[in-house]
Amino acid sequence: MSPIRVALVDDQALFRAGIRMLVESQDDLAFAGDAEDGRAAVALAARSRPDVVLMDVRMPQLDGIAATERILADAEREGREPPRILVLTTFDLDEHAARAIRAGASGFVLKDADPEFLLAAIRTVHRGNAVIAANATRELIAHGGRGNGRRAAPPSWQDLTAREREIFALAAKGLSNAEIAASEFLSEATVKTHLSRVLAKLGLRDRVQLVVFAYEHDLSGD
């Protein structure tokens, strides 16, 4: 199999050098270039066609959210497979990371994450799955709180059954299907079915978007 081509976008040269060394140390990964801002990132993605882009969200010229949107839009317009974008952030789950997920990123990890976690995240998003920072859901619950200016739940929220809302709340807390099944005395297959219906009714792509949805609409405690 061909190695996974990884590109990096970050405005800190030392950080870029460290990530490059980490990627190049892996036999199944190949470094596809780096960029120091969003504008350069768009050009890099078009030129080197990486499989995965590690994208900082706070940068000069063009931030990571706008760069994510442009990279994915360019790939769609040209009819080619878009890269998976993994957001790098210094915060567990803030508005920037949430907006990046909405823009099409496949997940986010903390900049100070364990190297093995970052490597696993790269491989995971390349397989088409989503990744969320290990502590993000705990941070969501801790700082969710009513009255913080987040949006009201859309009408589609009312389409969920009571059981589906229970599954939603547990998934938003970061529980796996197996953990939800044990908690609710259900089979994993049943949990998977409920979760699929929740995602479909809310128009969400994956569990990462579910967590972001809970964060944005303050539903983590429902």
UniProtKB/TrEMBL annotation:
Gene3D superfamilies named in the record: 3.40.50.2300
Keyword list, A-Z: DNA-binding, Phosphoprotein, Transcription, Transcription regulation
Key word DNA-binding present: yes
Pfam families in alphabetical order: GerE, Response_reg
Coiled-coil segments: none
Domain (HTH luxR-type): residue spans on this chain: 153-218
Response regulatory domain ranges (all copies): 5-126
Name of the protein described by the UniProt record: Response regulator transcription factor
Organism: Agromyces tropicus
